[in-house]
Design goal:
2 copies of one chain form a homodimer.
Chain A lengths: L5 H11 L7 H8 L8 H13 L4 E3 L6 E3 L6 E5 L5 E4 L7 H7 L4 E12 L1 H7 L1
Parallel strand pairs in A: 3-5
Antiparallel strand pairs in A: 1-2, 3-4
Helix pairs in contact in A: 1-2, 1-3, 2-3
The structure holds a DNA duplex (30 and 30 nucleotides).
Chain lengths: 127, 127
DNA sequence: AATGATAACGATAACGATTATCGTTATCAG
DNA sequence: CTGATAACGATAATCGTTATCGTTATCATT
C-alpha cells in the first residue's frame, strides 16, 4: 500500500518543471531550501519508486544517473563537451520496436536511444 | 606510444570469442586460470583503452558495465528475467542518425539502442 | 645482445554513486 | 483517536570503478 508523501510530491514536481535532466544530487540541492530536513537517501528512494511507477525515466548514461520527468517517447544526446544531456525529439520511433521484434524471439517492452556527440552550444564553440 | 601487452591481447581475444557480453569481472575470472597473476585493475585499464581504440563496445546498462567485442552496428536487449544482455541485429539503423541530425542543432557521432524486455528463454518460461 | 626510458603491470587504497540499516515520524484505514 | 506500518532522516555499508605506487616488461637505441 503506497502512502502519500510530501517529499515524493516535491521531487516529482521539481523534476517535471525542469528540462536539464538533473542527477539525484541536483534534485536534492534544489529542494533542500524548501525542505531543509530532506535526506539524499529519500531522493534516491523516491526516484527509484517513481521510475517503477512509470512517472519518471532514468537515463543511465554511464557514471551518474540522470532523470527525466517527461515520459513521452523521445531520445537523448549525451554531450562529450559539457557532459550534459539534451532531448532529441523525433516524429516517430522509426519502427524500431517492430523491426526488433521480427528479428528476435523474445518480448520487447520498451527501448531507449542514446546519441553521443556535441550539443548545440559545444558544436559552435568547436567551429 | 602504445606498447604491446600479453594481458590486453588475452582480454580482447577472450571477449571476441564469446557472445554473452561479460562484465570486467567475468573476463577477469575467465582469464585468471591462464594468467594467474592477472589483476582486476588491469582488466579495467585495458577495457577502457580498447574502448577508446574502438576495438570494444561498453554497454552501460545501469549498474555494472558489460562489454562487447563486436563493434559492427547492432543493438542490445537487457532481459528483465535473467538480467542478461542479448544482441539485436537489424538490417539498418532506421535512419536514426539522419533524423536526429535534422531535428537538432548539434553534432551526432554515434548512437546506441537498448531494448528492455525478455529474452527468448525467459519469454517461454513466462508463457 | 645490453641499456635505458617508460608503458603497463599487480596489489591495494581511495573514490563516488547508490543502497541498506535502524530508530523515529507521518500517513491513513478502522 | 489510535494502531499498524510506509516513509522518513542520518549514516554506515556496498560495490563498481579509478588512482596510486613500487615493480616489471616492452622496445627503440646503442
Amino acid at each position: 500500500m503506497q502512502r502519500h508523501s510530501r517529499q515524493r510530491d516535491a521531487i516529482l514536481e521539481n523534476l517535471c518543471s525542469r528540462y536539464d535532466h538533473p542527477t539525484a544530487e541536483d534534485l536534492y540541492f534544489s529542494l533542500k531550501p524548501k525542505i531543509p530536513a530532506l535526506s539524499l537517501a529519500t531522493v534516491y528512494r523516491n526516484l527509484s519508486q517513481l521510475e517503477t511507477d512509470g512517472k519518471v525515466i532514468r537515463i543511465g548514461s554511464g557514471g551518474t544517473a540522470r532523470y527525466d520527468g517527461n515520459v513521452n517517447l523521445h531520445y537523448h544526446l549525451s554531450c562529450l563537451g559539457c557532459s550534459g544531456v539534451v532531448d532529441i525529439f523525433l516524429d516517430d520511433d522509426c519502427g524500431l520496436t517492430e523491426k526488433a521484434e521480427k528479428s528476435f524471439d523474445g518480448t520487447i517492452i520498451s527501448h531507449s536511444v542514446l546519441f553521443t556527440g556535441y550539443c548545440s552550444e559545444c558544436s559552435k564553440q568547436l567551429g
